[in-house]
Amino acid sequence: MAYEQLKLDNQLCFRLYTAARLTMGAYHPYLDPLGITYPQYLVMLVLWEHEKQTVMDISHRLQLDTNTVTPLLQRMEKAGLIKRTKGKEDARQRIVTLTDKGLAMQEQAKHIPECLSAEILNHIGSIEELTKIVPTLDKLIEGLKQTNNEH
Amino acid sequence: MAYEQLKLDNQLCFRLYTAARLTMGAYHPYLDPLGITYPQYLVMLVLWEHEKQTVMDISHRLQLDTNTVTPLLQRMEKAGLIKRTKGKEDARQRIVTLTDKGLAMQEQAKHIPECLSAEILNHIGSIEELTKIVPTLDKLIEGLKQTNNEH
DNA sequence: TAATTTTGCATCGTAAACGATATAATTTTT
DNA sequence: AAAAATTATATCGTTTACGATGCAAAATTA
Fold first, then answer.
1. Straight-line distance from CA A90 to C1' D3, in Å?
2. Angle B117-A127-A42 from CA coordinates, rounded to 5°
3. pTM of this prediction?
């Protein structure tokens, strides 16, 4: 028999892992019509907030490394959502900007958050219960950033 | 400027996504010596609880599809952690069992959960705050399972 | 019993993640 | 200024995820 602490039901990380995957799945019906994936949607959110950003700005914001973000951006450029131009002052940098198509997509996307809230609300009862866990998740994320930096 | 609801900081899913990734990163120093990845660790947890399971048992337990689990199990078999035998009553099934090596790994792994708790505790203050969000995550997961089944 | 459907698993293709490494441009040091 | 170190991004290889499809064994129906 398993040690108590090794039981799957006692694992917080497994819950986060599952919740994250299933939530991404819930976005599918809304992102498919736009032709983007969930990570690409996150990049769009970042760019809709600030039009002009470097690869590093984006990867910092999403807590992803450039080796994940670069191919992501390359695919998005291919899809005509963004442009990647060489930086003028610093030629190492790549400046990422939205195309007209990328900018226009914001209008189609603006209802997605409320659609998702409504969908979850159908099955869970109260959205407040979910917003209540946000500060804890933020603390966890901050803690993990430090933990992971130490190794 | 972005619509308020489209701001990254207002996205619960982004938090789950980030928290899950960073937590998996925190497991790295403990799983590397064992030569397994986090999803493989999850499979081990499942098998340590019940020695003998079909591919479907495991994929149900982890909320993953067989097209994810099968290659995972193939790699784990190659690594000598599990065996996959054809089912006797039902020849379609694959019965997954632990090898001696896989069973023995439990002893090396039994301290991992407390190590991780301690590590997080260092940076976050109280573990209770984390356990408090578990019921909400469970409700969210259950709700999302249904939501995703409808589409 | 033969035909059909369903089920359990596997394979394929694509997109993430991420460690390791490479490369070119900038900074810092000598 | 030349050399060394750092920085920003990109490339490569492996492992996940997951939609789509295939296939053989069982279960169901005709």
1. 22
2. 70
3. 0.95
Is A15 within 8 Å of B141 when comparing Cβ atoms? yes
Contact state of B129 with A139 under an 8 Å Cβ cutoff: yes
CA-closest candidate to residue B135, choices A22, A140, A121, A9: A9
Q: Is the distance from CB of B130 to CB of B124 less than 8 angstroms?
A: yes
User: How many other C-beta atoms are found inside a 10 Å radius of the C-beta of residue A34?
Assistant: 15
Nearest-Cα distance to chain B for A29, in Å, is 8
Cβ-defined contact of A11 to B61 (cutoff 8 Å): no
Give me the tens of pLDDT residue by residue for chain A, a chain 151 residues long.
Answer: 678 899 988 899 999 999 999 999 999 999 999 999 999 999 999 999 999 999 999 999 999 999 999 999 999 999 999 999 999 999 999 999 999 999 999 999 999 999 999 998 888 888 889 999 999 999 999 999 998 887 6
* Joined tokens for residue B95: 């019965």
Q: Tell me which chain B residue has its CA closest to the CA of residue A129.
A: B136
Using a CB-CB distance cutoff of 8 angstroms, which residues of chain B are in contact with residue A18? Answer: 62-63, 141
